[in-house]
Amino acid sequence: MKKILSILLLVCTMAIMATTPASAASSRDPGIQRRIARQQQRIDQGRASGRLTQREATVLQRRLDRVRQHEARMKSTRGLNFRERRTLHQMLDATNTMIYDSARNRARGF
Questions:
Q1: For the segment 11-52, what is each residue's pLDDT rounded down to a tens digit?
Q2: Is residue 53 part of a domain?
Q3: Which distant-in-sequence residues (6+ apart) come within 8 Å of 93 by Cβ?
């Protein structure tokens, strides 16, 4: 009887340990954080180099802030699921395109 209880306890412990990292990992996505940081860096560099006007930089900054707000709101429930991560990546794709286009238009921030 003791042996059966020991095995059952071991199995339960392993099951709990196996599910904990998965649930913790679902609440954060380092890819999203990296993309947000990189886009912030690109906006700052564009502003400093004059490739972005002040207005363009403000619009891009607001858009990136909106992505951050969406991410925080989505994480506040039960973490990010697949659909929420996809939505955030789509928002970041659109912001990335806006940064690219704004930095390459003829307007200069000098």
A1: 666 666 655 444 444 456 789 999 999 999 999 999 999 999
A2: yes
A3: none
